[in-house]
UniProtKB/TrEMBL annotation:
Documented EC number(s): 1.1.1.184, 1.1.1.300
Gene: LOC101961668
Catalysed reactions listed for this entry: all-trans-retinol + NADP(+) = all-trans-retinal + NADPH + H(+); 3alpha-hydroxy-5beta-pregnan-20-one + NADP(+) = 5beta-pregnan-3,20-dione + NADPH + H(+); a secondary alcohol + NADP(+) = a ketone + NADPH + H(+); 5beta-dihydrotestosterone + NADPH + H(+) = 5beta-androstane-3alpha,17beta-diol + NADP(+)
Record protein name field: Dehydrogenase/reductase SDR family member 4
Keywords: Oxidoreductase
NCBIfam families named among the record's database cross-references: PRK07231.1
Domain of life: Eukaryota
Keyword Ligase: no
Lineage: Eukaryota, Metazoa, Chordata, Craniata, Vertebrata
Amino acid sequence: TTSMFRALSWTLRGLHCSSIPLSTRMFSERADKSRSLADKVAVITGSTKGIGFAIARHLAQNGAHVVICSRKQWNVDQAVTTLQKEGLSVTGTVCHVGKAEDRDRLVAKALEHHNGIDFLVCVAGVNPLVGSTLGASEQVWDKILGVNVKAPALLLSQLLPHMENRGGGSVVLVSSVAAYMPISKLGVYNTSKTALLGLCKSLAMELAPKGIRVNSIVPGLIKTDFIQMEKTLPYSLSDLNKVYGLQRLGEPEDCAGIVSFLCSSDASYITGENITVAGYSPKL
Ligand SMILES: NC(=O)C1=CN([C@@H]2O[C@H](COP(=O)(O)OP(=O)(O)OC[C@H]3O[C@@H](n4cnc5c(N)ncnc54)[C@H](OP(=O)(O)O)[C@@H]3O)[C@@H](O)[C@H]2O)C=CC1
Ligand SMILES: O=C1Nc2ccccc2C1=O
């Protein structure tokens, strides 16, 4: 509960609500110490739109230098320009996370002006298939697992020495409630998002001795371009939230404060966690 309260405080800080009454002196002192991510460097994949863009903006508002990327140069240019105009420290490059040479370019970009990397947030994800799991071609399996599951691990392996240089770091993976509760006709995607939860646990264990924490966020339905294909499904996923939840769909910004929190020193004893951001709780 305390960590969720801190997470909420981070979310509100991002919205510049600095006048929140803090209940205890101890909490207040700790929060002050960890206010800033200044001098930290964050790499965020799939960050020119939607959830990744909101996370990039929030981390940068908290003082981090943020390196954004996505597949399309135009999207990168637009996103960098928008955030720089807001006075934020942001650079970017084209990177399709499934391509080794693109990942190399991203790492080089992140190291251009800085001598290490502190945070990696893996947001890029794809779902090219609406259809049955067993009807999926090998090509579809390779694409979905390649981008959603393999790429975060491969990119992290490239960034690892640069995180170790900094004496530790924080990694955040982006799964989905589809990991817990399969969405019909998205079987391969569901499977990839469940695999990410396993990846989170394994990496958390392997990297703990190096002081690198690995957590994941598990979004529910968030209003972005990604969910356009929901309209092709024979039912409305937002009904779930209407029955169990906070009676609204999520906004990309709903996913941002929790990531800044997980990167911050307030979360320094939290690793291997999967945190749902769905307006309802799909698990015990
Ligand atoms: N929206 C939702 O309801 C939910 C989303 N998620 C997850 O959140 C993540 C982001 O989704 P969301 O923000 O909604 O999607 P958006 O479509 O709004 O944004 C996706 C971003 O990722 C980039 N991108 C796509 N493919 C790649 C790739 N191969 N390499 C690098 N960048 C890429 C896109 O830019 P470009 O086209 O230039 O590459 C864009 O910047 C995904 O992993 C998704 O599975 C999870 C649960 C719910
Ligand atoms: O792709 C997705 N579509 C969704 C709809 C509802 C909840 C999660 C998701 C996804 O991750």
